[in-house]
Amino acid sequence: GPAGSRARGSPGGRRRTLLAAATTGCGLATALLFTVGRGDVFAGVALFVLAHVGSTIGASIYNSFLPLVATGRGMSRLSGLAWGLSYFGGIACFLLCLPFTRGGLDDANAANFANAFVVTAVFLLAIGLPAVAALPSAAPAQGASGPGPYRRIWSTIRQWRREREVPKFLLAYYL
Question: If we measure between CA atoms, which residue out of 19, 90, 94, 95 comes closest to residue 55?
Fold first, then answer.
């Protein structure tokens, strides 16, 4: 079909929409942590879980864009650069939150401390949503012989027997 119709239904376009939704959901749940008061354990845990799920889903979708924006050795470089920049972003957000958290988490500073959740949410959305918009909306055209994503996943799983470090890495990562 025409290129325009392909882009609307492309995996990259759906991924971008899902990534934007996960990022927004994570940001909103994080901001709503501001409203949690003393004794609101269930609300705090529920919002934290929602933010964490949004973050985890978002990270997985974000990582799936790597083959769309780089190839070969460029993938390794870009992945490493993005990983490193994410740490700088975390440090920057931490520094922005310091004025609110320096007084500690006691009753006198609780309201001020809660502002750190709003700062974190605004930082996430201000950095994350423009990044989502910059990602490609369409997957590059694959030749007829190119394997689909599910075949690539299955091929990776089958090769684990030869690549003994992959299961070890995944086990270490998740534990």
Answer: 19
